[in-house]
Amino acid sequence: MTAPAPDTRVLLADDHALIRESFCALLEAEPGLRPVGAVGTGTEAVRLARRHRPDVVLMDVRMPDMDGIEATRHICTDPETASVHVLILTTFDLDEYVYAALRAGASGFLVKDSTAAELITAIRVVAAGEALLAPRITRRLIATFARQGHPAGPTSTALPGLTEREREVLTLIARGLSNTEIAEHLYVALGTVKTHVGRLLAKLNARDRAQLVISAYEAGVVTPGT
């Protein structure tokens, strides 16, 4: 008899007690998800992430003592919590928060007006090692790169360690395509795409697809509006 899959363990970090309680109740009612703690500061989030090593930290941005961006950076750069994925959840879907959170290592970004179903899906996606950005967040992120004056177009020296096929896959990832969509676009097997993605993650020292998107835009492999 096959043993049941272990629950996805979630740590909640938000400075509003009512929100923490609501999210805990939501997670407890959802099969396969289990809250392992709820804290109100970034410092506490880092401490409990080290203690419990949850699968996902649901992280607010604006918190006292240490904000969610800095807490994310501590969690994602600490070898003890390297396997922990951070999902940023905030009221403020501002460009600077999106970019800073992703640079800090966050795997996803949702705003608090998302539905309960969207939140549950996001937690499961991030726990599985994928990246998740709400569509409007992706558009804002691209607009941010445009305003900040990142490279105007692809260059032959951008990311020189990549093969042409890897560069092509990276471009499609940055445009928001899933592995299945990339396989269909390139007329290759899904397993082949997964191999390319794995190599990209290793070569670019990226935690997940969100980090790959940032690498693509910073190197000019993909530009806003293309």
Automatic annotation (TrEMBL):
<dbReference type="InterPro" id="IPR039420">
    <property type="entry name" value="WalR-like"/>
</dbReference>
<keyword id="KW-0238">DNA-binding</keyword>
<dbReference type="InterPro" id="IPR016032">
    <property type="entry name" value="Sig_transdc_resp-reg_C-effctor"/>
</dbReference>
<feature type="domain" description="HTH luxR-type">
    <location>
        <begin position="155"/>
        <end position="220"/>
    </location>
</feature>
<dbReference type="InterPro" id="IPR011006">
    <property type="entry name" value="CheY-like_superfamily"/>
</dbReference>
<keyword id="KW-0805">Transcription regulation</keyword>
<dbReference type="Pfam" id="PF00196">
    <property type="entry name" value="GerE"/>
</dbReference>
<feature type="modified residue" description="4-aspartylphosphate">
    <location>
        <position position="60"/>
    </location>
</feature>
<dbReference type="Pfam" id="PF00072">
    <property type="entry name" value="Response_reg"/>
</dbReference>
<protein>
    <submittedName>
        <fullName>Response regulator transcription factor</fullName>
    </submittedName>
</protein>
<feature type="domain" description="Response regulatory">
    <location>
        <begin position="9"/>
        <end position="127"/>
    </location>
</feature>
<keyword id="KW-0597">Phosphoprotein</keyword>
<dbReference type="InterPro" id="IPR001789">
    <property type="entry name" value="Sig_transdc_resp-reg_receiver"/>
</dbReference>
<keyword id="KW-0804">Transcription</keyword>
<dbReference type="InterPro" id="IPR000792">
    <property type="entry name" value="Tscrpt_reg_LuxR_C"/>
</dbReference>
<dbReference type="InterPro" id="IPR058245">
    <property type="entry name" value="NreC/VraR/RcsB-like_REC"/>
</dbReference>
